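Could you help me review a protein record that somebody else here produced? This is what I was given.
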Amino acid sequence: MKLWKLSGILLIGTGILHTIVGLIIGWGVLGEIVKEGIFNTVGTQYDRNAAVWFLLCGIFWVLIGQFMHLYVKERQQPIPRFIGWYFLIIGILGVFISPVSGFWLFIPQALIIIYADTIFTYNPRN
C-alpha cells in the first residue's frame, strides 16, 4: 500500500482528534457560550476565542482532509508536494512555538506528501 493514499485520512484523524481535545479542554467555556445564547457571546474574551478557534480549526482540518482524500481517490496520484511543504512549515513553526502540542502530527504527514513516490511506499510482499 502506498502511504500517500492515506494523506487525507491522516488529516481527517488529526482534525477529529483536535476537535475532541478542544471539546474536552474547552467544555466549561463552551458551556458558558451556549448558556448565554451563542450569538455574540465571544467578544474579546481570550478563553472564549481560544475555545471557538480550537474547534473551528479541527473542523477545518477534517474538511481539508476530506478534500485531500477525494483528490487522491479520483486522480489516483499523490497530493501536490507544495501542500506537504506547507504542512512541514506549519508543523515545525508550531512545534517551535508550542512544543507540548499536537503540531508534531503535521511533520510525518508532510513528509508522506513530500516524498510520496520514494521512501513512503509500503509493499508487504518484498
